[in-house]
Specification:
mainly alpha; OpdG; single chain
């Protein structure tokens, strides 16, 4: 269940996202409309950096809220990102499309700041190293779930500097992986197979993102093995869904064309 977060009024970008998640009558379409209105306002603001701060706030609060939103309740966040990416904001000063310099990320087709903020949140809660609390593990799982969904919809593509994102999937079968596999690691693999099976399958076939021959089979075997270890109902359901998705996508992409 989504955890209700207390938000202190004062940041309009944050308040839009809060309403999206907690007001059933406020849709992603309405949220995007308000965001683009604020983008247009920032574009004509006399304040230095107004556009960048606005884009950074949107990206930051998407992941601030995503930390506490369970993987199967993130549809509103994903819909917002997909709709936002379709918006085109004109540059009132230079003409053309408003872009964030120096990377020339356009609003909103390039979703400025989102990749940078994604990386920051991922490594803040990364599960490698000292053991984390159950709460921190769940936050990591939620972030991986949204990251997987973003990857399936091409927010994170080969060559755009997002290779680190696949560590939550590849580290568990790395030769230097710890001998004891934790529940959150298996659940994170499930997130990829549930929410980005096509992307994972194609990368496994094409050996993109550092994938190696046999990775797909090893993930499948790993999930089958730990299906006998982590017996709680929620993890069992995740593993079953992940394995079913793997079988489905194998039929779609049986081998390289």
């Amino acid at each position: 269940m989504t955890e209700v977060m207390n938000v202190i009024p004062g940041n309009a970008d944050r308040d839009i996202l809060f309403r999206l998640l907690h007001d059933n009558e406020f849709s992603a379409t309405e949220a995007v409309k308000e965001i683009t209105e604020r983008t247009n306002a920032a574009a004509i603001s006399p304040e230095d950096g107004a556009v960048s701060r606005h884009a950074q706030d949107i990206a930051y609060y998407i992941f601030t809220f995503a930390r506490k939103v369970c993987h199967n309740e993130q549809s509103q966040l994903l819909e917002l990102l997909l709709l936002l990416r379709q918006q085109v904001v004109p540059d009132p000063n230079q003409g053309g499309i408003l872009a964030l310099e120096p990377a020339s990320e356009e609003f909103w087709s390039d979703v400025p700041w989102v990749r940078v903020i994604t990386r920051s949140f991922y490594f803040q809660y990364v599960i490698y190293g000292p053991p984390k609390t159950p709460g921190e593990d769940r936050i990591y799982e939620n972030i991986v779930a949204l990251l997987a969904q973003m990857s399936e919809h091409d927010f994170c593509t080969t060559g755009d500097g997002m290779s680190w994102a696949w560590r939550s999937l590849t580290s568990i079968i790395h030769p230097d992986a710890a001998p004891i596999v934790r529940n959150v690691q298996v659940r994170s693999v499930c997130m990829w197979m549930i929410y980005a099976p096509n992307k994972v399958r194609m990368n496994a076939l094409l050996l993109n993102e550092g994938f190696e021959v046999g990775y797909w089979e090893r993930w499948k075997a790993l999930l089958q093995d730990y299906q006998k270890v982590f017996l709680d109902q929620d993890t069992q359901q995740l593993i079953n869904t992940a394995l079913s998705n793997m079988e489905l996508v194998e039929r779609v992409y049986p081998e390289l064309i």
